[in-house]
Amino acid sequence: MSNTLPPLPYGYDALEPYISQQIMTLHHQKHHQTYVNALNAAEAAYAKASTPKERIALQAALKFNGGGHINHSLFWKNLAPSAAAKKGTGGTLQDGPLKKAIEESFGSLDTLKKEFNAATLGIQGSGWGWLGYNTQTKRLEIATTPNQDPLLSLVPIIGVDIWEHAFYLQYLNVKVDYLTAIWNVINFEEAEARLLEATGGSKL
Ligand SMILES: [Fe+2]
């Protein structure tokens, strides 16, 4: 059971000018591939481990690299070529269940962006910013996770990588500019599909 690097659903230059071709190429081919390789190595070692102690020793590698693989696989799909750059539909939120849920939970998309960016900027070190769906309260919430921890407390709807490898070559230390720019390439259609899956609405 080997994990593999999923292909990007668009070209490496498709998210420009908001995320550069250089970042996308390195991020996908080098960083994500490294998580996949290390996860496969950890899973293979786990399969051969014969004692609880050996298995416990592999937990950190499984969590870090497994989380990295899960998070990046979600991330590529929740980005899309930008409508503002006349390349696609990225960054546009059409009327529908997601827009309704965002307005119910945050008042407006602009408020969501402000709250999301503020929470994500507050991450100390590397991590991820999330818009997630709470299946108990049936509302959308903002969350963050450190390192490569996957979002487990909510169903992930949108995830944004705030590791330096995701932005530094283009935005240097100015994280807020990266976070402002990325909303131009958020794939709200994918986000809505995840919300419908989480709520069972796709069966209606
Ligand atoms: Fe990353």
TrEMBL record:
Residues 95-194 form the Manganese/iron superoxide dismutase C-terminal domain. The keyword Oxidoreductase applies. Gene3D superfamilies: Fe,Mn superoxide dismutase (SOD) domain, Iron/manganese superoxide dismutase, C-terminal domain. Belongs to the iron/manganese superoxide dismutase family. InterPro entries: Fe/Mn_Superoxide_Dismutase, Mn/Fe_SOD, Mn/Fe_SOD_BS, Mn/Fe_SOD_C, Mn/Fe_SOD_N, Mn/Fe_SOD_N_sf, SOD_C_sf. It comes from Coprinopsis marcescibilis. GO terms for molecular function: manganese ion binding; superoxide dismutase activity. Mn(2+) binds at residues 27, 72, 161, 165. This is Superoxide dismutase. The keyword Aminoacyl-tRNA synthetase does not apply.
